[in-house]
């Protein structure tokens, strides 16, 4: 009897813990979906003028429209695009109203990163962004080959002589470049998968608990038969 009681309490504790974890992930899913909805609304809002002092937090994803001149001196950043493969994001300096900022013009294939691209007067629209792509595994830029491995905005700004401000273009700035505009699809949201995993484990735990309880009760009966 004591053994059955122990198995029952142990099973209920484990089942309750796993259900609680699944419920927590469900709550996190709702929270994340609200954040993504807010980001989508911000990304697709009407564009405004470039702020005088853009803030990396307050102005992240801010839609901006500006006119100016695309300058020479681009930097290719190595990336991989789903269903396309490896290539480069082209980061270039852009001058507007006496200011110089960075512009992510979009994606080109591996073989096209040294191709000459359109420069001069342009009208741009896009979203401000400060990507967080640097970690302890990110290689240093290959300055000899002019290849970077992350959009490190402060470092790129220093290299190209601009403000530490990056506009990710939504419109085409050259026929050979495919824009890669900001989208919330690139923000991880795995909470549904985690919730399903925890609830699935809870179901397995309940089944195993029931099996062990049945086996424990059946054993004395077989011994007395």
UniProtKB/TrEMBL annotation:
Give the membrane topology, semicolon-separated if more than one: Multi-pass membrane protein
Annotated PROSITE patterns:
SURF1
Which stretches are transmembrane? 194-214
Q: Which domain of life is it from?
A: Bacteria
Q: Which UniProt keywords apply?
A: Cell membrane, Membrane, Transmembrane, Transmembrane helix
**Keyword set includes Transmembrane helix:** yes
Q: Does the keyword Nucleotide-binding apply?
A: no
Q: Where in the cell is it found?
A: Cell membrane; Membrane
The record's annotation in InterPro entries points to: Surf1/Shy1, Surf1/Surf4
Q: Name one Pfam family in it.
A: SURF1
**Family statement:** Belongs to the SURF1 family.
Name-wise, this protein is: SURF1-like protein
